Amino acid sequence: MKTLLTISRIIVGILFIFSGLIKANDPLGLSYKMQEFFEVWGWHFLNDYTLALSVIMIAFEIIAGVAVLLGWKMKLFSWLLLALIIFFTFLTAYALFSGKIRECGCFGDCIPLQAGQSFAKDLLLLALIGFIFIYRDKIRSSLASRRAMLILFFTAIFSFALQWHALLHLPIVDCLPYKIGNNIPEKMKAPPGAIPDSTVIVFTYEKSGKPVSFTADNFPEDFDDSYVFVKREDKVVRKGNAQAAIRDFSLQSPSGNDTTLALLNENREQLFLFVKDGYAKGSWTEALNITLTQAEKKGIPAFLVTNLPIDEIMNNGPEAFRRLTPLRSDGTAIKTAARYNPTLFLIRGGTIIHKWSALDLDQALKALQQMP
Asked: Is domain 260-369 classified as CATH 3.40.30.10?
């Protein structure tokens, strides 16, 4: 029994620490995933709190994992772990059985698990944590209470510091489709050999006050003017795997022309500053001005990619913005590409050479100075 309890604690502790560290590398990713769930449930009022919830949940995962390994205060942490895993299992079950959310974000973007895989993982953890919960009174820490508390204190400091660094300076390990080295036009294509979704057109009519749905293959034999059209929809009957890594990226001129491929296929260095609504303000605009001056010396064109109205951001934004050629893009694409707002990309031929958060523009300046 003691051996099984120890093995269960090790597995649960390591998995929680591993999961927490992966998500701590990109806390905004979990925040966006929370917003996805809230959008589906209609809980829009919680969207402004998802980042705080994300940071707290990630820190707790790491702290709880360490506490389980140490066997410290298991009467408390066994309750907390049980509550957390029941919540996670509910989320993954909802994603799996509702079909409304493809991935739960359990391991962030670095290890994307399908809903079924996440649900199976959580069922295993639920069983292990349930076992730990039942025998929680038999667990004793091998460390003195003061030493265990010191370890957990520094664990908490580390988990919050790691997330703070990632939020200000971009993820340490970039697992996004916009990571350095990726070619954006290539990532916009479905992978070779991919199977598209199999869909069927479903018609919904109303007859005698009741809705009636059917496909083109099984039209009712008595179909006539008594059927009143309600809607037509494409229903997925078999999921494929044809999704491109980048699905919503576009660059449009102020006049509305799509210039995405025309710009990204140019075989020269280009700078793209991604700016989303509510962007951070501060002294980085001075560093941007200096960086743009260096780019002009090197003959490198610079663009402003934003979801904001062009006139508004060019007239009311920092003076440095007026030195950029404005382009419109989707807000979802911008928040995926630029984890800090704003973020500067250096691109050549559609391939991402480098990217910097607005707080690291001094590094961008050095990179441009070293270019021939």
From this structure: yes
